[in-house]
Amino acid sequence: MLDANLNLKKKSIAVILAAAALIITLFLSIAIASPAGITPYTSSISVMGTEDESSQQQSDQTQQQPAGVNLSEYEAAVLYLINTTRVSNGLAALQPNQSLTDISRTRSNDMMARNYFSHYTPEGTTVFNIMRSCGIKWSAAGENLAQSLPADIGSPEAFMDAWMKSPGHAANILKTRYGMIGVGMIDNGDRRVVTTVFRN
User: Fold this and answer.
1) What is the pLDDT of residue 16?
2) Angle, to 10 degrees, between the axis of helix 156-164 and the axis of helix 73-88?
3) What's the CA dihedral at 35, 37, 39, 40 to 10 degrees?
4) 188 contacts: CB under 8 Å, gap ≥ 6
5) What stretches in the chain show pLDDT beneath 70?
6) What pLDDT was estimated at residue 43?
7) What is the pLDDT of residue 47?
8) What whole-number distance in Å separates Cα of residue 90 and Cα of residue 174?
9) Alpha carbons 187 and 151: distance in angstroms, whole number
10) Which residue of 26, 35, 119, 184 pairs with 104 in a disulfide if CB–CB is 3.0 to 4.6 A?
11) For 131, how many CA atoms within 13 A lie in the half-sphere containing its CB?
């Protein structure tokens, strides 16, 4: 009977040690898969905003707002939230602009395609360089960026909340000199990137 109890205890200890080894192995696998400085894939919302580039070029007063700006439902929701915030702060609503929307989509698409998230392309180009190359003139302009992993946590409300909690992003959204905006969202199913471009 004593030998049976001793064998049972030995088997129990062996099972516990095997389970502990499995847990340690799983922990090490997770630690290797998620090195320091990299946010685990589970849920991450990031935002980034440029300081406004003012008085770099004179405003082109002849540029008119194109009729029928083509915004997706998502992009229209972002615009609605931005304008609701502006109006509640006593500011005029921003008018959507097709040229700025095209640039916003190009910026979001480039960040998605080349897997970066920055106001600078890998070559060092900024939205201001792109605007100049498109013949767009301004006296005040800025850019807000947002991305989410996974894509579906990046709702317009989640990004708006993150922007408004950041002084630099909120300053772009509430700048009195801005009158036009472009909104561009790209989603590949795993990641969502949104760019908003502002100008006077």
Assistant:
1) 46
2) 40
3) 10
4) 112, 151
5) 1-43, 48, 50-67
6) 67
7) 78
8) 9
9) 7
10) 184
11) 28
Give, in degrees to the nearest 5, the angle at Cα 192 between 188 and 197.
120
Residue among 74, 104, 78, 39 nearest 164 (CA) = 78
Residue 54 region by backbone torsions, left for phi larger than 0, else alpha for psi between -120 and 50, else beta: beta
Rounded Cα gap, residues 76 and 128, in angstroms: 23
Please report the pLDDT score of residue 3 as a whole number: 53
Q: Give 2's contacts (C-beta < 8 A, 6+ positions apart).
A: none
pLDDT of residue 2: 44
> How far apart, in whole angstroms, are the C-alpha atoms of residue 62 and residue 190?
41
User: Which residue, among 177, 168, 169, has the nearest Cα to 78 in the 3D structure?
Assistant: 169
Q: Which residues contact 28 (CB under 8 A, 6 or more apart)?
A: none
CB 142 within 8 A of CB 178: yes
Instruction: Concatenate the DSSP letters of all residues of the chain into one string.
Output: -HHHHHHHHHHHHHHHHHHHHHHHHHHHHHHHHS-TTS--SS-EEEEEEPPPEESSS---TT--PPSS----HHHHHHHHHHHHHHHHTT-PPPEE-HHHHHHHHHHHHHHHHTT--SSS-TT---HHHHHHHTT---SEEEEEEEEEESGGG--HHHHHHHHHTSHHHHHHHT-TT--EEEEEEEE-SS-EEEEEEEE-
* Residue 189 backbone dihedrals phi, psi, to 5 degrees: 95, -30
